[in-house]
Amino acid sequence: MSMPTAVTHQAPPGSWSRPTPIPMDAWREDERFVIALDLPGVALEAIDVDVLGRMVTVKAERRPAPRGEGARTQLAERTHGVFERRIQLAGSLDPGRIAAHLQDGVLTLTAPVASASRPRKITVQPSEAGQSPEESGQAVVAAA
User: Fold this and answer.
1) For 92-142, how does the pLDDT look when each residue is reduced to its tens digit (9 = 90+)?
2) Count of CA atoms in the C-beta half-sphere (13 A) of 10
């Protein structure tokens, strides 16, 4: 029995004018926000990460594998072309300190949480008898 000569499924390749979206996951770990984007088979030099204001744009291109002369495609399911994802960062993140790493086909972006957005623990001290908190030099927390 021979393999079919027709392609049974082939996704259209993305182009610079119509890129294919990049699958991603995002989560917060302690004091940083992590974004993982799937880019299997994409060379490091084919990935662009740009930040403009709070918008992060990841663009990558995967080219088809080279085939010998006279080769006939039997099946083509691996997508190739241009991939892109735009991510709007929250105001609590620091876009100026984003780091990017590529390992095993996964591009990981990490953005630290801005120090002003981190929770801060305030210790409550007892006041001395007859003294207001302002007089004793202790902080006063106003209710919202």
Assistant:
1) 888 889 999 999 999 999 999 876 656 678 888 888 776 665 665 555 555
2) 12
- The H helix count followed by the E strand count for the chain is 1, 8
Query: H helices within 1-142, ranges in order?
Result: 133-136
pTM above 0.70, yes or no: no
Distance of CA 37 to the CA centre of its chain: 6
CA torsion 16-17-20-24 (nearest 10°) is 80
Two structure tokens written together for 133: 């908190």
Q: Which residues contact 48 (CB under 8 A, 6 or more apart)?
A: 57, 58, 59, 60
Q: Which two tokens stand for residue 95?
A: 């876009």
β-bridge mates for residue 34, sequence order: 27, 110
CA atoms within 13 A on the CB side of 96: 1
DSSP string, 111-124: EEBPGGGS------
Q: Residue 67: how many CA atoms within 13 Å on its side-chain side?
A: 9
CA distance 99 to 38: 16
